[in-house]
Amino acid sequence: MAFWNRKRNQRSSQTIQLAMGSVDEVGYVRLSDHPDIITGVNKIADLVSNMTVHLMENTAKGDKRVKNQLSRKIDIEPCRNMTRKTWLYKIVRDLLLFGDGNSVVHIGVDVKSGLIENLTPFPMQLVTFDDTEDGYSINYDGRRFLPDEVVHFVINPHPVHSYKGTGYRAALQDIAKNLTQANKTKKNFMSGKYMPSLIISVDAMTEELSNKEGRDKLMEKYFSETDGGKPWIIPADLIKVEQVKPLSLKDIAIMEGVELDKKTVAGILDVPAFFLGVGEFDKEQYNNFINTRIHSIGQTIAQTLTRDVLYNSNWYFRLNPRSLYSYALSELVGAGTQMVDRNAMRRNELRDWIGLDPDEEMEELIILENYIPSSMLGSQSKLKGGETNE
Questions:
Q1: Residue 351 and residue 357 in contact, taking contact as beta carbons nearer than 8 Å
Q2: Could you state, in order of their start, the residue ranges of all structural domains in the chain?
Q3: pLDDT higher at 306 or 369
Q4: Which residues of 283-296 are buried (b: 16+ CB within 10 A; e: fewer)?
Q5: Which residues contact 238 (CB under 8 A, 6 or more apart)?
Q6: Over 50: is that where the pLDDT of 286 sits?
Q7: Least confident of 3-17, 241-255, 296-310
Q8: What's the domain of life for this entry (predicted)?
């Protein structure tokens, strides 16, 4: 038994070494090609781009939504051949990945009307920034733009050049290399080359073992000629067959390392680890992710659009995250019903929450006393000395 344990330990060491290979063999893998990193980035971009862009106005009675040609332009058709979702999706991917914390959108104005015609995102691989005496300039494919000619979105401001952002390239580079190496190791290991289910012990003095042809002949003679399901008949004094337990990924600690690296990627990108396949979905963690990471990027985009696009000081843009939260239908109905009962919401607004069309008879505000219209509260008989609520 000691002989078999020793052999298995030797095989384990050789398997790990052969399967892992040299770190230098992994080669260069771009962050945009790494599955775990692109999964996290795409999830953030997908959620942010699902938020509607509202044009808001400050009024004496509170902020209200403005619907005009400008709000339609930003929320429906910001750029030719792009919807709001694809437009925001590209901006967020540039911020997190391709632009290293920057995304630059050119403001195209119609000469005749003076209105915004297109907000065209630049390919960030062709964009560089230069310091100038009065600020900075943006160079795109040989053309120079001033900051007031573009919308420049920034996350993680640079510690020295605060006008531009910084990305996650340096932080993710080593982690990406580790995960790529782990995937290569897993692929080699799972190929089966280093996972035999049997070890066959043969008398070393047998003439057939002296060359490859002889060993193949021995295998053909005693094992290949037997049909599946039938027992093998082999000479007891020549060959001994021992079943061994194959190594698993757990034995070589691949899974633990991969899980740790995935959690590190999730932490750097600030996404829940279950997006990368680690752990199970957690509703509270997901809603907190919407409240923090997604809302933060939405704020960056909204405030930048407000600064670079709007001239009316009472207007501002807002990205609405309410539809992104994880709700049960019963929770929506319950919260909406309480607001309706307290005269804080119309029933048509509640119908809109749960995806129903408006109803003409549900536009009035009602009160939780027999659900009478708010305009008829003073007509109740009991308020005029009567004993009924008619």
A1: yes
A2: 28-199+248-324, 327-375
A3: 306
A4: eeebeebbeebbbe
A5: 202, 203, 206
A6: yes
A7: 3-17
A8: Bacteria
